[in-house]
Design goal:
11 helices; about 0% strand; globular
Length: about 280
């Protein structure tokens, strides 16, 4: 299924550097992709991609433990996340709800199980960089739709995109940016190990992790992206719900959207106190 998805996602990619479409190429910004669900000018491989997503979700939600573990191991890679971004861009953001369904799969893959307190290695940061590329591609689209008001299908995609980014933001602090070699006593002063070499204290490790986390937030969420979230948050908190939610059945989605955006902005401010003035 993964091979079939790769073929479907890449088959419409235009020639060029790395096969990444530019604005106006492929299906990324076709006139027909206006949020109505109408098919873009090119047909693409939407049905094949949707079938792949359903298979992936079936494995992640209902598969036996060993099957789910194997699926996560195979799909939780920067290459797969980048391929999903390409599939969303080439098929249009709202066509067949492809992007929303892909984001459900990616969020499920990204979320750590409850028995794991941290990511295992720093190498996993490349996966979060892929998440940053996804959000960077989404942010301008979200802001353009925000200015004119979201259609129902678009509000579903925005809600899922914010939910996905909420998981990213919450888990960034779980990346081991520095190797914790301090003792388990929690002492805030440096210690000397049996070999006579100076080891890191808990306070030093936390300070370095905090500095790394601040740099990571600035890289993955530039000011333009956080401004989009602030615009949405402002409208939601001022009761301008008609721009985001257009029927009563989506009230709970609006509540989750407000909570997730609030968390994203708060996490950004907490890790970037030097940018507080710009944000305020």
């Amino acid at each position: 299924v993964e091979d079939s998805f790769s073929v479907a996602a890449l088959s419409g990619a235009p020639k060029g550097d790395g096969g990444v479409p530019e604005p106006g190429e492929g299906m990324m910004q076709t006139a027909a992709d206006d949020g109505t669900g109408a098919a873009p000018a090119q047909t693409g491989h939407g049905p094949e991609i949707l079938a792949s997503m359903r298979c992936f979700l079936a494995l992640l939600w209902f598969g036996p433990a060993e099957t789910k573990t194997a699926a996560v191991s195979s799909l939780r890679t920067p290459e797969f996340f980048d391929l999903c971004l390409l599939a969303m861009q080439l098929n249009g953001w709202t066509r067949l709800n492809i992007a929303a369904k892909i984001l459900v799969v990616l969020e499920e893959l990204l979320r750590l199980p409850y028995d794991r307190l941290r990511e295992e290695t720093l190498a996993i940061f490349s996966l979060y960089e892929s998440c940053g590329r996804i959000m960077e591609a989404f942010a301008p689209w979200i802001y353009e739709r925000f200015l004119r008001g979201f259609r129902p299908k678009e509000s579903l995609l925005v809600s899922q995109a914010v939910s996905f980014w909420h998981v990213v933001v919450k888990q960034l602090s779980l990346i081991p940016f520095t190797e914790d070699t301090a003792s388990d006593t929690g002492a805030s002063t440096s210690v000397v190990g049996p070999s006579g070499h100076r080891e890191q204290s808990h306070s030093e490790v936390e300070e370095r992790d905090s500095a790394c986390l601040s740099l990571v937030f600035n890289e993955l969420m530039p000011l333009k992206t956080i401004e989009v979230f602030i615009h949405l948050l402002y409208e939601l908190m001022n009761g301008a719900t008609q721009k985001v939610i257009q029927d009563d059945d989506e009230a709970s989605r609006q509540e989750r959207l407000l909570l997730n955006i609030t968390t994203i902005v708060a996490e950004y401010l907490f890790t970037n106190p030097s940018r507080a003035y710009d944000i305020f």
